[in-house]
Specification:
Blueprint (H helix, E strand, L loop, with lengths): L1 H29 L4 H20 L3 H29 L5 H30 L1 H20 L4 H15 L3 E2 L2 E4 L2 E5 L5 E5 L2 E2 H5 L1
Antiparallel strand pairs: 1-2, 2-5, 3-4
Helix pairs in contact: 1-3, 2-3, 2-5, 4-5
Length: 199
Amino acid sequence: MVQSWITILFVVFGVSMVLGAPVAGWITQHSSLRQVPLVIGLMAALAATLLFMLSKATYLLVIARCLQGISAGVVYTTVLALLVETVERDEVGSWVGFALSGVNLGVLLAPVLAGVLYEKAGYYAVFGICLAIIVIDLLGALLLIDKTRARKWVQDGHRTGDGSKHNGSESTRPMIEERDGPQHSRYHTTDITDGDIRN
């Protein structure tokens, strides 16, 4: 009976992750901030770990594993999207390989460390380490500055800098965007002084 439930829990996790990853990809693509789905995924992982730790009934364990699978799909998808849009194009392969190596290293070491910790410190110590790691990840996600937000700050800084004085009078420097193609743009600025407006 125990083996059957262990199998069910593994299957539920895998199915939930497979179903959750495409949805997470769509949300990440249409989200203005990649940070939002990442934070939601980590909060779901935190809730799933707490539920798994405190569950006394098998159906609660199934729910916890389902939530863990969904959160894993969201986090994996969002992190890879952040990685691809942050690093240079010719460095994507090496950075993705580095990230996936970290995942595999965690899968390799975590069962051994959890077994030793369970033997030495007990049941709740294992979940305590898991919760601490998720909280650290969550804090990192909250402090994350993704490219969308950074680009907005840079544009706001340019607009603020464009309000400088010109010939003793304040000038307005509207930015005109001329698109040369789908991937290239060129910006020009023109000075319009108060005297020009009056004339």
